[in-house]
TrEMBL record:
The lineage of its organism: Eukaryota, Viridiplantae, Streptophyta, Embryophyta, Tracheophyta. SUPFAM superfamilies: S-adenosyl-L-methionine-dependent methyltransferases. It is found in: Endomembrane system; Membrane. This is Methyltransferase. The chain crosses the membrane at residues 21-41. It comes from Cucumis sativus.
Length: 593
């Protein structure tokens, strides 16, 4: 076929139209690239795709049928989640939550999907995952392949946070406000506050980074709860837990933190950037609720004597004065205050309108409770749990605290509970040959802690224990803190605020009570969901110990097989009352094909 000869003008017009189309397509692709990478549109689309992937097996009807088959022992194994889900946290998904309000950082708080929206699958380990480096070596180095997230190392390496060396991440012990190391920083604080001698035991580190402060406070026998949100750094709490340092994901936003009142002997902020005086000092009021009478508040970094933040620094001092905090020192960009032990000096004239809460206010209520706009009252027993009055560590561990009275005959129940757990833990170690006390176990969780008797019984082991008090049970968490232990409130019908593969050892006494209504056999949520969640934050080759009645243990055994645990059932220890059996399970180290 011959060529058609077009006039030159038409030929040029066609060429220009083709060039226009190519150019427009090119610039359109460039624009789309910038939208996806640098705007929330990219996050939204990525979140949509990720949610589609994770929800692909979450059809409510199919999901319910699978759970029924698992409970009946008729389904061999629950499927693995896709590889993209290796770090999935159902309640702290930054892309999902990015669509929520920014006001008071609401979007960075817990926002859990409904059960039927949660995929019924097992979170796989990342490619190249290895059994974690053991404590105490893990404080200084971890496997890079276990969490290959380089953003913090790239951005904060010059400040001593962490750096990559060969197959490891190395942690020199620094931080933004202590680039020369946490040890020197803690020594400086020791000039002003009693970091030695057992006077201080429980601490809260807000916006903790990779938790080097908390890690090195352990040398002083001070047990620090470190928290930070899941944010642009992505993995700071994940790094802390991999190092063997107590930590969990949280955000000081619109709700109270999940701790009882007057829990911490020391509250610490090193460049945490919390606007303490915003919203009529609401965040300072929350810190005051958590700080024990006579306790110390340390703030390093902005706005303390910080350039161009004179007003913020003046406001911070004004709030502290309004609450009658004693100024201990201002050392460079670090300020240290001491909370008064006596009655609050409120009401007084102050520019923030600070007032005491009503006497009906319960300052210990903190599970999905909005932040107070009033200052919590200390109880009539405040002198008994104030810093300097409460027994020193370790004596306080065994002494029944006044706040054990939250349950009937609390002091007697406390002492009986302590004796019971001493006997049980001895049986665990001697007869069941559990790994407690060995280098294989560092991060421990007690999912139904009551008075913390299990944690107290393993006090000589090189471990720390996250004592969880279910939110629908008596509020015994305050007594746990008075003992010098740590923990949080939680409802086990929701996922826990931690990363996958966080804990070496999980203990739970009375697992059915976590999913049932109080005093009833009726379920609030499903046991299969709970055990899949336990599997999410249990490390490969980690151990689970579950105590309950024989019928419950039989249910648990069937579910354990479906989630790839190897389980054995044992009789309870001699001398124990009640109908109990003990299931001991190990999470198998499986990988995606």
């Amino acid at each position: 076929m011959g060529h058609v000869n077009l006039p030159a003008s038409k030929r040029n017009g066609r060429q220009w139209r083709l060039l226009d189309i190519v150019s427009a397509a090119f610039f359109g692709l460039v624009l789309l690239f910038f939208l996806l990478v640098f705007t929330r549109l990219g996050d939204s689309l990525a979140a949509s795709g990720r949610q589609t992937l994770l929800l692909s097996n979450a059809d409510p009807g199919q999901r319910q049928r699978i759970m029924e088959l698992v409970e009946a022992g008729q389904k061999q194994a629950i499927e693995a989640c896709p590889a993209e889900a290796v770090d999935h946290m159902p309640c702290e998904d930054p892309r999902r939550n990015s669509q929520l309000s920014r006001e008071m950082n609401y979007y960075r708080e817990r926002h859990c999907p409904l059960p039927y929206e949660t995929p019924l699958c097992l979170i796989p380990p990342p490619d190249g995952y290895k059994i974690p480096v053991q404590w105490p070596e893990s404080l200084h180095k971890i496997w890079h392949s276990n969490m290959p997230h380089n953003k913090i190392a790239d951005r904060k390496g010059h400040q001593g946070w962490m750096k990559q060396e060969g197959p490891h991440f190395i942690f020199p012990g620094g931080g933004t406000m202590f680039p020369d190391g946490a040890v020197q920083y803690i020594e400086k604080l020791g000039q002003y506050i009693p970091t030695k001698g057992g006077i201080l035991r429980t601490a809260l580190d807000m916006g903790c980074g990779v938790a080097s402060f908390g890690g090195y406070m352990l040398a002083e026998d001070i047990l620090t709860v470190s928290f930070a949100p899941r944010d642009s750094h992505k993995a700071q709490i994940q790094f802390a837990l991999e190092r063997g340092v107590p930590a969990f994901v949280a955000m000081l936003g619109t709700r109270k933190l999940p701790f009882p009142a007057f829990s911490f002997d020391l509250v610490h902020c090193s460049r945490c950037l919390i606007p303490f005086t915003a919203y009529n000092a609401t965040y300072f009021i929350e810190v005051d609720r958590l700080l024990r009478p006579g306790g110390f508040l340390v703030i390093s970094g902005p706005p303390v004597q910080w350039p161009k933040q004179d007003k913020e620094w003046a406001d911070l001092q004004s709030v502290a004065r309004a609450l009658c905090y004693e100024l201990i020192a201002v050392d460079g960009n670090t300020v240290i205050w001491k909370k008064p032990v006596g009655d609050s000096c409120l009401p007084n004239q102050n520019e923030f309108g600070l007032e005491l809460c009503n006497e009906s206010d319960d300052p210990n209520r903190a599970w999905y409770v909005k932040l107070n706009r009033c200052v919590s009252r200390t109880s009539s027993a405040k002198d008994e749990f104030a810093v300097g009055t409460i027994p020193k560590w370790p004596d306080r561990l065994a002494k029944a605290p006044p706040r054990a009275g939250v349950v009937k005959n609390g002091l007697d129940v406390f002492n009986a509970d302590s004796r019971r757990w001493e006997r049980r833990v001895a049986y665990y170690k001697k007869s069941l040959k559990l790994k407690l006390g060995t280098p294989a176990v560092r991060n421990v969780m007690d999912m139904n802690a009551f008075f913390g008797g299990f944690a107290a019984a393993i006090k000589s082991d090189p471990v720390w224990v996250m004592n969880v008090v279910p939110s629908h049970k008596p509020s015994t968490l305050a007594a746990i803190y008075d003992r010098g232990l740590i923990g949080v409130y939680h409802d086990w019908c929701e996922p826990f605020s931690t990363y996958p593969r966080s804990y070496d050892f999980i203990h739970v006494s009375g697992i059915e009570s976590l999913v049932n209504y109080p005093g009833s056999d009726k379920s609030r949520c499903n046991l299969v969901d709970l055990m899949v969640e336990m599997d999410r934050f249990l490390r490969p080759e980690g151990t689970v110990v579950i105590r309950d009645n024989p019928e419950a243990i039989e249910r648990v055994s069937r579910i354990a097989r479906a989630i790839r645990w190897t389980a054995t059932v044992h009789e309870k220890e001699p001398g124990s009352q009640g109908r109990e059996k003990i299931l001991v399970a190990t999470k198998n180290f499986w990988k995606l094909p």
